[in-house]
Amino acid sequence: MTGQAGARRYEPGLDGLRALAVVAVLAFHDGRLRGGFLGVSTFFTLSGFLITALLVEEWRLRGRVSLRRFYGRRVRRLLPAAVLGVVLAAAVAVRLHDAHTSRAFPFDGVAALANVANWRFLASGQSYTALFSTPSPLQHYWSLAVEEQFYLVLAPLTVALFALVRGRRGALLGAFAAIGAVSFVDSWIVSAHSIDRAYYGTDTRALEFIVGALLAVALGGRSLGRRSARAVAIAGPVALAAMVWANAHFRVTDHALYRGGLLAYATAGAVVLLAVRERGVLRAVCSLAPVRALGRISYGVYVYHWPIFLWLTPRRTGLDSVPLTLLRVSITLALATVSFLFVERPVRERRVLVGRRRLVAPPAAVATAAGAALLVGALASTPAVTFAATSTPQSVLAAAQHMLTSTTAANDTSSTPTRATSTTPPVRRVLVVGDSVALTLGRGIERWGTRHGVLVWNGGALGCALVDGVLVRSYSGVAPRPPDSCGRVQSWPKVIDEFRPDVVVVLYGTWDVFDVSYDHGHTWEWAGQSDFDTRYRALVSSAAQTLHARGAHVLWLAPPCVGPAPDATDSGAAWYDRSRIDAIGDIARQAAVAAASGMTVSPTAHDLGCPVDYRDRPDGAHYTDAGADVVANALGPQILRLGAG
Q1: For residue 322, what are the contacts with CB-CB under 8 A and spacing of at least 6?
Q2: Is residue 563 in some structural domain?
Q3: Packing angle between helix 117-124 and helix 99-113, nearest 10 degrees?
Q4: Of 417 and 572, which is predicted with more confidence?
Q5: In the chain, how many domains are there?
Q6: DSSP structural state of residue 9
Q7: 451 and 363: one domain?
Q8: Alpha-carbon gap, residue 297 to 295, rounded angstroms
Q9: Are the C-beta atoms of residues 431 and 486 closer than 8 Å to each other?
Q10: Residue 424: inside a domain
Q11: CA dihedral in degrees (248, 18, 227, 9; nearest 10)?
């Protein structure tokens, strides 16, 4: 997403390549091109080429590289739009009226300005909560952070290598190839554990920059010979066709991307990069005036488009499909053009901010943007939904062990076991397990427990589903779901053994209404179909047996209906059909009949949650505290009866 740094002369075809890349990103974020995120990969490869070419050229001409001048150029080129982008995102965050987004924005803004946004979004787990609230208006800054981190390392590393190998091209190629190999292996290993980590990591994405850097070192500032130029002109359209195919077919979650796919894509991008610099069809197309014009403002287009796209939704504009896309793109292009003409280019060409002002302006601009980000957080309201238990597992477990120890001691000093008195509840300990909806409902059960002298461990988990280890098709696309996402194998037995619950309240369904594939995407199934129902019944029975192992009674809740969140783009999707959630409740009842004892299915959450009341569940799934209290108070007598029985 950089400008023309590193080019010895103006190459109109490179601006055209930037235009193609940013169009792919816009189409991806507009929901029209599922693999358009690969446009970012093109920017990475192009940046690696241009920056390395600049360093190689300066070393060749001067025998040294001035890192101060290098970073000064980077600041003048990238900082103005980046700062304005944070301010724009802050304004949008305020207008979105989303408490989760606003409260997280100060951290997002500071991370964006510090060029560590990719690590911020990974560490915060924001990718999950964004599914049920508005994504951060600065989410796209992850790639700017990766790029800046690479610049921070590449320039001094290249200078050190130049000095070490005395500018020998073969040695430089070998060094860069070794770095690329490490990044490739790293990506392969990391992707097996976390796709998000592989996608956002600077170390895992360095390979795409290195491909561009290798090309720059190989060329060494020279032009291609006639025969090579002709071959590249022919290969370029073929490589571009392969990239277009990848943009149409790949998804972020495809493991193949991180096991050679991104390397192949970056290599194809390098071929196209060469082709747009040589006479031929690609250069002619990429040098057309409108294409070049878009390429020149592509950095601003990338920076400004995402908050604009978030703000301009069908609900806010009354538009849909093509008219909405045209509005989004038009406003983005207009803002990027104004930014380029009146801010970015004057600063880069040193027509403004000269003398002492050039030293004061950058920190002042960053401080202003940071202040705007902090102000968003200060103005944020309390989130309607809280994704956390009211008590920590450690405190609940400590209280439970004290309770168990006291009971054991009392029994040891008495000839008969201690019995419950009229003031002792028949249930002493309740465990809540399930998905994130169970977590938010569990907060209400915790408060009910406090009023009735019952200790409650709220073990609901984010991103937890009963159906796991499969491919899932949902509003976020197609993605693999990891095995044991709820800890049924790793965690439940230990929790049951240490906490010794009298009753276990179980709630699943929100994550299980989606389409699933047991054969890597060849066929799809869902609740209500025979094969899915058979598999799901086995999962319910197995989970209930695990939870009942120490004698606890399992109170399985038929799940409430699920509805689309406000501004959702999948409001008509089949997984919101009530028949699916009803089928999941029916399966639980069948499992309870088969179990004969130890398991009861309650219709309370389902009956109170169908249809969805958005006052109690504003995102269509998760409970507010008030909504959770209503359901918990209705469940309370059922919990106590199970203990008394």
Answers
A1: none
A2: yes
A3: 140
A4: 572
A5: 2
A6: S
A7: no
A8: 5
A9: no
A10: no
A11: 180
Q: Are residues 444 and 560 in the same domain?
A: yes
User: Sorting pLDDT into bands at 50, 70 and 90, what band is 196?
Assistant: confident
Q: What are phi and psi of 90, to 5 degrees?
A: -65, -45
- The domain in which residue 361 lies consists of 12-379
CB 562 within 8 A of CB 569: no
Confidence of residue 570 (pLDDT cuts 50, 70, 90): confident
Is 146 part of a structural domain of the chain?
yes
Q: Which three-class secondary structure state does DSSP give residue 498? A: helix
Same domain, yes or no: 375 and 453: no
Q: Give the end of a domain, one of 379, 406, 438.
A: 379
The tokens describing 304, both together, are 């400004």
409: left (phi over 0), alpha (psi -120 to 50) or beta: alpha
C-alpha distances in Å from residue 278, one per residue of 228, 287, 532: 10, 11, 56
pLDDT one-digit tens code per residue, 503-513:
999 999 999 99
Structure tokens at 170: 């073969």
Q: Are residues 340 and 433 in the same domain?
A: no
**Distance from C-alpha of 93 to C-alpha of 380, rounded to nearest angstrom:** 9
State residue 255 phi and psi, 5-degree precision.
-60, -30
Query: Rounded CA gap, 500 and 494, in Å?
Result: 10
Structure tokens of 46? 């192009």
Apex CA 211: angle with CA 208 and CA 215, to 5°?
150
CB 344 within 8 A of CB 84: no
- Tokens (6 digits) for 25: 């990103």
Name the residue with tokens 């594939």. Answer: 517
CB atoms within 10 A of CB 119: 18
Residue that the structure tokens 């004969």 belong to = 596
Q: Please name the amino acid found at residue 640.
A: L
- Cα 90 from Cα 108, distance rounded (Å): 10
Cβ-based neighbour number of residue 607 at 10 Å: 12
H or E element, residue 162: helix 141-165
pLDDT digits (tens, 9 = 90+) for 355-411: 777 778 889 999 999 999 999 999 888 888 998 999 999 999 999 988 888 766 555
- Do 370 and 113 form a contact (C-beta atoms < 8 A)? yes
Q: Which of 408, 410, 424 is nearest to 643 (CA)?
A: 424
Domain boundary among 358, 379, 400: 379
CATH of the domain at 488: 3.40.50.1110
295 and 226 inside one domain: yes
Whole-prediction pTM value? 0.83
Cα torsion 615, 619, 625, 631: sign: positive
Residues in the chain: 645
**Residues in Cβ contact with 241 at an 8 Å cutoff, skipping those fewer than 6 apart:** none
State the angle between helix axes of 99-113 and 357-379 in degrees (0 to 180), rounded to the nearest 10: 160
